[in-house]
Give the backbone structure.
Amino acid sequence: MMTLKKTGFFLFCCACLFSCISLHAQQKDTLNKPVTKDSSRQDFVTRMQDFAKRSSEKSRAEFDADKATIAQIKTFDGILRTMQKAKIYLKGNLDTPGIKIDIKEIDEHYAIAGDGVFTNKGTAQTFRNLTATSKILAQLVNKANARKLKLDVRQQELNDFRYQLDSLLSVPALFKFPKDSTTLMKYMQKIKLVAYETVPIDSALKQASNNIQTLLNQVNLTVFKLQSSLEEIDGYQKEMASHTYKREFNNLWAPQSSYRPFGEILEFSKTKGLLTLSFYAENNAGKLFLLILLTATSFIYLRSLKSIYKESNLLKTDFDGQIVLRYPLLSAMLLATSLFQFFFLSPPFILNVIFWTISCFCLSIIFKDYISRYWMWVWRMMVVFFLIAAAGNLILQASRMERWFMLVISLLGGIMGLLTLIKGHREELKEKWITYSIAFMVFLELASALANLFGRYNLSKTLFISGFLNVIIAILFLWTVRLINEGLFLAFNVYSGQDKKLFYLNFERVGKKAPVLFYLLLILGWMVLFGRNFPSFDDLSQPLQNFFGQERTLGSYTFSINNLLLFIVIMIISVIVSKVVSFFASDRNVSSGKDKTERQGIGSWLLLVRISILCIGLFLAVAASGIPVDRITIVLGALGVGIGFGLQTLVNNLVSGLIIAFEKPVNVGDIVEIDGQGGKMKSIGFRSSVISNWDGADVVMPNGDLLNAHLINWSLGGNRKRIAIKIGIAYDADLEKCRQLLTDILNNEERISKNPGPLVHYEQFNTSTIDLSVYFWTKHIGDTSATRNDLIMSIVAAFKDNGIAIPFPQQDIHLYHLDQTGKSD
């Protein structure tokens, strides 16, 4: 077709050339002839114009046909590619049967969660049942929304395929048919083939879309049902919080208005409790793993600390002041579970019971034969009462049997608490604050019994568990603080390489009495765990949560106080971890009996480890808080300007610190000498390093000065040093015997290296002595002074025994007397 276009264009050009030649000839004739009208010339021009017009239209038509052909080819290729992708996508079917099973399982769990709230309501709702149901429904909503999201994505992708096919099949170029009959037949066959392949794919996409939509409608209904139920429970909880003292049941001695078998109540409570626990554990698997990791780390540290004290014979038989080292594993479990439980947000009560039970078990073993028998009996009884109350609190629906059970236990607990306070033995208490929690327990248990008698079930149950829980948490936290305090104090005693105010606490004042800060944190934690048992706790804490979680705008940057606090907390943890690593990698104050020549394994790599910890902490803090990276770029740019103008010295010291860390010209623990002053490298910091000189002072030297100074590092040569002792002997001494004596003395000294061996050299004839020098290498530079001292003593003794004199400097004066004649006598 392009050839025809080119031929037409060539004929059109020839015709134009021929017309031009003819017109030129006619113009020549007109010059010799008078001007007259020529009809034949006009006819020729008209014909040429018609010919040009027809040629132009023909060329335009051919161009449009070529353009349509190219568009048709591209469209057919797009249709084929889209159909191929659609086929592959349809083969990878979404697990719709699995989603149907999940929806069915969600409905089953909804029925379990609704027992006692939407079905089998009984006379009144209970706070614990509402809380458990709310947590289960929240997890079910999350699951249903996750399935809904998958279905929405699938539906969107199916619609996209159908839209792409419809768009390609409606391209206008497909409907421009060739004028040639043969070409038209071939084109129609191609369209028929494409239509034949497209129709099944389009039908399959449509069918899949309908199936997804049907399933999506079912999921949407489930989500709506769950969310409506959550809103209804929220209404129940708010009503319960606002009517704390409302009567729910008749007086305990009055006839029962409704009845549900107690065994059935226990069964559905167990099922609902385990379901809540499984959901929460599944969503917080990472935190549970961190809890195990923290326990293992604490155990390793406490075990190593105990080994140090045992090797140093510092471990007491009664573990007074060292109770944290008695059972390192149990201490680690107690510390980890007591502290890390606050990282679990809104945990189910059954998980808290597991944590508290583990802590009680560990503390009971630690207490054995450490506290008095009387208080050990009190502790065990408190644990038994708490476990009974916790088991009762896991029962999610009220019953007359449970109410009588609560009444008996609360009265027994109150009576036991009163007897404990009356009987005394307070002088045997390790922590005096325990008596306050016992007195508070007595008040709560008696109030619980009174509320129970007059039908205030929810209030009675809250006071019932809170009374025993208050004592258990108080004792656990008091001893947690005590064990932490002991661990830090014991670590301070055996580690001395770093700053004593590592945690911004004065460790010299840490002893049996913990810092006030620890007790303030204890009270705060006690208030949180104690308050969770009351329905109004969420209402009181919600405004505070909203305040911290509300997004605020500063310019174009949106932030919340939670994000800022998260950033600060992560950075503080990074700094503390960095300092802890530095602290516990330093030299031990207590000798462990190992060889003094042992080099520290971490050395100057400590600085790189600290930098890595801080960098990782900064990255996590920025990522967790959502701080925009472009803002950080602006800050770094501003810092760059500041560095260029006024921070050259600081940057020089920081860079020098990195160079020291990488090149390691000096290591922590090395014996160094700078400008004639010797000492031991104590630490290498970001900006400066600390050198302990032989006088006991710590010299703080900027890293830039340290790197530029003429540094002598004795430790790089193996901590050896060559010593020279100069001796002068009398001229009449036996030189060979003297050499042999000195050689024997040097060879018998164990602190002198045998390779290279010692040397004895006679050097010169002095005024009154023959001078010799003894050269030898000490195995360790720390033995230099003692070895020189002992050798001088041995040499003097050996020379005396063998009659070798060490003369002192002397001069002979000769006097000459002159007579009167000027001659000497």
Remarks:
- Residues 181-242 form the longest helix (62 residues).
